[in-house]
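Late entry, written up from scratch paper. The run itself happened at the end of the previous shift, but nothing got recorded in the book at the time, so transcribing now.
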Amino acid sequence: MVRVLAVCLGNICRSPAAEAAIRDAAAEAGLAVEVDSAATGDYHVGEPPNPRMQRVAAEVGMTVTGTARQIRPEDFERFDLIVAMDRDNLRTLRRIAPAGARAELRLLREFDPDADDLEVPDPYYGTDDDFRRTLAMIRPAARGLVAHLASRR
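Output as recorded:
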């Protein structure tokens, strides 16, 4: 089984939505994937996903759940692939990764062949439409990630 960790700054908007989208895409593809999400920062540890993300995800039939947590050193060994939502978080992951860590570090949108930008912007201070746009970037990237994993089987 492949293990994937989605990471953003606070683990209440983008990464739990990516976790849900990857889980849904894997289920559709019949691919066994363990998915989790985490934050590079400790701002929201212990909190549920942002209610606006939960609401806009529900509009498209997705369920975003979980409890925010910060990434831990052992995550770099436990997970096969860690996908960051933006370059800042990817840089942080590269900086904090233990020497010789086995997890591959990538940007989530690298898996979307139609992406015009590889960053998933943080909607936290935005409107519901910003959350919808974020989700519209995450979902095709999640499907592309699952297709990539399926092709490696």
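The chain has a mean pLDDT of 97.
(Scratch paper discarded after transcription.)
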